[in-house]
Design brief:
Blueprint lengths: L3 E5 L9 E2 L7 E2 L9 H9 L6 E5 L7 H11 L3 E5 L5 H4 L1 H9 L4 E5 L1 H5 L1 H7 L5 E3 L4 H12 L11 E5 L2 E4 L34 E4 L2 E2 L10 H5 L4 E2 L2 H13 L4 E4 L8 H13 L5 E6 L6 H9 L2 E9 L3 H6 L6 H13 L3 E8 L6 H13 L4 E6 L7 H8 L26 H16 L2 H10 L3 H15 L1
Parallel strand pairs: 1-4, 1-5, 5-6, 6-7, 10-13, 13-14, 14-15, 15-16, 16-17
Antiparallel strand pairs: 2-3, 7-8, 8-9, 11-12
């Protein structure tokens, strides 16, 4: 028996891969990425010592709904926490219905940007849901479990919590952000099926490390404001090194800094890199970043410290689109950043978005041409998706460009719910398909991939992912 189960729900369909996190809106991953559930590992670390906890990652462990039902019957948990993201909201809510069917007394809780933005609507859609944590979840989650363990019902004292009482939905005042992220414990990576996680070109046995939270930039498509309100908070280098030593101890060989703009603070990055070198950890790592925060001195230190790849939010090949979506970068900065990174001996992974406001066939062509002319090893072309709570969502609603509010169709991995006057949803999807075909069906791109894969298993995954995207 386990007191608490933290669950990443099964996929809606067999064979589909869903990316979920309590800081992300989530999507379908045709490239078959399986994300480490570091967010659940944080909640596990916050659980009181007298409460036993287990993480069930149904995506990584290929756990079906039937399998999950058997686990719930066997473990007989008192509490379950599970992800609910926009693109699979109706599917994810089945987790709580299933748990209540097995044990009506079980307490159910969820978290993340979708339910933070749509709290009342989520409760109405799922009567089996007892609690919703709005915003940063860890302290609220800990206080909730402690209150339940003490058989108390004074939930009104817990900031950041929404709950039901006598059929009424009650929403407590918001909780302030954790000022010092070093106060959080090291996530329970040891409870995760680390060997099951997959990311292009990453070795098996990798995980995510959260170096900071929040982003000060105001891109209209980003869900960061829902959770972090543009407030950037950073962990100390000492705290991160402690976590990296723990990861090495449990056999992790590689990790990705799951931070929106890892290179935001140059001095902090260099200090961390120096400590990684001094600790002689010999871990390989990658990170996410923005093109206007790349620096030559910094990338040299990153390379020395084991960084082999930087994933850049490039988004578009049109300066006009970049300005309108408030990315506030330029094509010139993109080219300069990629050149600086590759000169340091670090590979570049590019994120692009097709279908942002004012997109046309001509601007799509600019994005495709830019991607093809950059020396990047991997490119993902996302569909512009207006996730609830983002400025993009408010814009398309106001201008009546949103043609569907079915959550399953707001998925940057597979569908476009927008029709612009100058560009239809179908044309956006065609642009995505065209981008993938033109980028990957080139000898240069194929050779870059072949020289970067580490084994035949990874090559097989990439070929399968390519077929899914290209055809």
């Amino acid at each position: 028996m386990t007191d608490l189960l933290l669950i990443n729900p099964p996929s809606p369909k067999k064979g589909t891969f869903i990316i979920r996190d309590f800081n992300r809106c989530g999507r379908t991953s045709k490239e078959k990425i399986i994300w480490p559930q570091t967010s659940l590992a944080y909640l596990a670390a916050m659980t009181p010592k007298n409460v036993t906890v287990r993480i069930i990652d149904c995506i990584a462990q290929k756990t079906s709904w039937q399998n999950l039902e058997e686990i719930l019957k066997k473990e007989k948990p008192k509490y379950i926490g599970a992800h609910v993201i926009t693109s699979t909201a109706h599917n994810d809510l089945k987790t709580f219905r299933l748990a209540k069917k097995i044990n009506p007394k079980i307490k159910t809780v969820t978290f993340g940007p979708h339910v933070t933005e749509l709290t009342k609507q989520t409760f109405k859609e799922c009567p089996e849901l007892d609690f919703i944590i709005k915003g940063e979840p860890e302290i609220t989650f800990k206080e909730l479990i402690q209150t339940l363990e003490n058989n108390k019902s004074d939930f009104f004292k817990i900031k950041g919590l929404a709950y039901k009482k006598d059929s009424k939905i009650l929403i407590n005042p918001d909780r302030s952000f954790i000022k010092n992220l070093d106060q959080l414990p090291i996530p329970r990576h040891d409870l995760l099926p680390i060997k099951k996680y997959i990311f292009p070109f990453m070795a098996s046995g990798f995980t995510f490390v959260v170096a900071s939270r929040g982003c000060p930039f105001k891109c209209i498509f980003c869900r960061q404001p829902i959770m972090w309100n543009y407030i950037f908070r950073q962990r100390s280098a000492k705290s991160i090194i402690k976590e990296l030593k723990f990861l090495k101890k449990i056999g992790v060989k590689e990790f990705l800094f799951s931070t929106d703009t890892f290179t935001l603070k140059k001095d902090s990055v260099i200090k961390l890199c120096q400590l990684i070198i001094k600790a002689n950890l010999n871990l390989k790592w990658a990170c996410n970043s923005r093109v206007d925060t790349i620096d030559q001195e910094m990338t040299k230190w990153m390379k020395k410290a084991g960084c082999w790849m930087i994933a850049l939010g490039i988004e578009s090949g049109s300066d006009k689109i970049l300005k309108l979506c408030q990315k506030n970068t330029t094509v010139h900065q993109i080219k300069k950043a990629v050149k600086t990174i590759t000169k340091a001996g670090i590979k570049v992974y590019g994120y692009f978005i097709i279908g942002l406001p004012e997109e046309t066939k001509e601007t799509i062509r600019k994005t495709i041409n830019l991607a093809k002319n950059l020396p990047i090893i991997f490119a993902i072309f996302h569909i512009a998706s207006p996730y609830p709570g983002t400025e993009f969502y408010k814009m398309v609603k106001e201008k009546e460009w949103l043609i569907s509010e079915r959550w399953e169709e707001i998925d940057q991995g597979c569908s476009s719910p927008i029709n612009y006057p100058q560009l239809s949803g179908g044309e956006i999807l065609y642009g995505i398909k065209k981008a993938y075909r033109e980028f990957y069906l080139r000898p240069k791109a194929i050779l870059r991939i072949l020289f970067s894969v580490r084994n035949f298993k990874d090559l097989g995954r990439l070929i399968t992912a390519g077929i899914n995207q290209l055809f």
